[in-house]
Amino acid sequence: MSRTSFNTNWFYRPKTSIFADVRGQAEAGTPVHLPHDAIISLERRADAPSGAAGAFFPTGAFEYRRTFEVPAEWSDKHVALEFEGVYRDAMIYVNGAFVAQRPNGYAGFIVSLDGYLRYGEENTIRVDARAHDDSRWYTGAGIYREVHLWVLDHVHIAERGGIRITTPDVEDERAVVAVATKVKNTGTATKTVQVKTAILDPNGLEVGHEESRITVLPQSEGVVRQRIYVTSPQRWSVDSPTLYAATSELTSDTGTMEARSTSFGIRTLQLDPAHGLRINGETVKLRGACIHHDNGILGAATFADAEERRVVLLKEAGFNAIRSSHNPMTAAMLDACDRHGVLVMDETFDMWAESKNPFDYSLAFPEWWERDVEAMIENDFNHPSVVIYSIGNEIPETGNPIGSQLGRQLAEKIRSLDETRFVTNGINGFVSALAQVSALIAQAAEEPPTEENADGGVNALMGSADDFMDQIVGSPVVTEATAESFAMLDIVGLNYGDVRYELEAREHPNRIIVGTETFPSRIDANWKLVTENPHVIGDFTWSGWDYIGEVGVGRVKYEGESMDFDGDYPWLTSWSADLDLTGHRRPMSYYRETAFGLRTTPHITVRRPSNHGREFTLGQWSWTDAVSSWSWNVEQGFPMILEVYSDAHEIELHLNGRSVARQPVGVRKAFVADFEIEFEHGTLTAIAFKNGVEVSRSELTSASDDVRLDVRPDKSELTLRDGALCFVEIELRDTDGNLVNDAERAVTVEVTGAGSLAAFGSGRPATTESFNQSSHGTYDGRVLAAVRPERAGEVQISVSAPGLATVVSTLQVREESD
User: Fold this and answer.
1) Which of 681, 701, 721 marks a domain boundary?
2) Which of 450 and 266 is assigned the larger pLDDT?
3) Does the pLDDT of residue 756 top 70, yes or no?
4) What's the total number of domains in the chain?
5) Residue 398, φ and ψ in degrees, nearest 5
6) Using one digit for the tens of pLDDT, what is the confidence trace for 345-397?
7) Which of 41, 199, 276, 444 sits at 20 to 30 Å (Cα–Cα) from 79?
8) Do 497 and 642 belong to one domain?
9) Are strands 726-734 and 782-789 parallel, antiparallel or unpaired?
10) Please, what's the b/e burial string for 5-43 (b: 16 or more CB within 10 A of its CB; e: otherwise)?
11) What's the pLDDT at 445?
């Protein structure tokens, strides 16, 4: 007996008082199959208390219940529940009695049920959770990650963090695999057991093993350490993510008590200012994406297949690294990063003791931070993809000598638990020196104009937003404020601090830098800084994947619309990302790929003609409203503004076989050629030239009026398991496969048979539509459905739209043992 799923047969309801239950006024609850986001299906309102930060969703408190039969023979076992994450302020009750709590909504934790269960009868688990004014983004609420049931002998391997694997010494001819196994005894008798560990190569062949004996006293624990030598090791890397497995058996005279398998990779990490970050001796520059934890149309619910899809699509878009912003990454996403070769910067907190919201985690930080750091390390330790830990994001205390000691405690805590990775902190110099900067602005506002400062103090200090930020972040004020916080790190993480990259090299030649958060519009200049400065190991853009909340941060602000930082209702997403909420690549993604040097084919984009002639403002997280399409519902001859992204010297446009324009690349912005031409239905071709010689070309073709539904499930067979999903991409295309992006339709998805519709929606950043309905409008000709298997058998997925032929797809669901 060991770890099994505990995700079914739950009921949830809004939290009510115990007196309402007594009076029979409370709801019985709605059946739910975990993971579950209790907020994503609720109605959004312009006056919702979460505001723009929480995407105008309501807040609330929720209650989850499940009953289960506890066999009498479990009375001689250790029984526990593992929660991968409950948002937030989780309170756990067994048979009505309080057992445990966890304030942090992102921390995994174990709840021992020993002493609380009634053996041989039915037992009740209740979990309370709540979300209210506690975050700067959409969090969801409830048991949004998976739950597992552990049933073990009293002598057992610790549930979380029980097996820790490192590869401290790696050479071409052999590698040392060091395995530390924590054995616990929750019983009343001293026990002697054997720990057997075997190392399996990627083909499942045993390449090393070791056996060790350990005696464990009652109510205590011990660690077995084994060094196993693997010859001719295959190393894990971004380009070759080779994984080994360690099988661990706990045995006694009566046989095997427990067996587990742990995936790991053999690789080395090095760091120095001359070579930057090296993996297996080779320098790797981090092409990074910051991401939030929500899964788009699924809300906060964490499904393994959704996490893997995100990792795959981000890597296909040119990223080789992910920063989990601003909370520890899920186990499922770490597994996917291991398999696909994506590096991870895993982050602890968005705040320490200084709050950013009235009821956020700062209220629990002083008491809980150490346990939450331990939980993150337990989750990450065996994952070769994890190379950097971040102790925070834009923490105000980093500019305070006393407050910064919290950072030192965090960093040293991590090092005491894991010496194999590097420690950073996402420090925003403006935030760190906010008090000093505010004083300078106030002082400048009172200064009379001078010849050097003809417009007055504040205007001269601020200039443009970019200039102002650079002036502050690069100033001696920030240098002084952050000196101690920078010095305690292995890698100095800078949020929007690219102005300091070369400054730090001059003043601190031993210092290593990473851009923990950067403006997407600056990737051309920032990547040049990364590649030309060995001490700068990478860039993490804000953001890689669009997310719910912080709405409209990256929107284009047109004349007559709100100029506020956030968007107004019904804005739903940030709209600051390379990939939209459904995983579709936006134009800035192709621009970034070109800036990274990974793309040589020109990418054609067209600004939406509906906004032609309107004055607009681009924010620091914005991109233009360009779309890669030549299918537009406009008159022939309508003026169209084009942006073509390329690393070539010149771009020539051909329209229906004739040359209509030729422009140099990089006049307005690096890697961009700008055009204005008249619309004409047909084929638009962009030809890239270097030194007058054609090097590549691409084209867009206008769609015909013969529209059809193009339905593409991402798999035809699915195993019935936790975290399983089939994603169905649905697009409007003509018979030649050209996307119809300028004629939106309402699409309906009906799922019957052995599955259900988990979510359905588009990437539209401002909408009143929800993701829990069977009908949804397309955005730029696209929608996405997520189908969840419920039992073995066949799933029928029927997709329809007014005036179009219905398309039916089938999905086979098989038992996991098949």
Assistant:
1) 701
2) 266
3) yes
4) 5
5) -65, -15
6) 999 999 999 999 999 999 999 999 999 999 999 999 999 999 999 999 999 99
7) 199
8) no
9) antiparallel
10) ebbeebebbebeeeeeeeeeebeeeeebebbbbbbbebe
11) 63
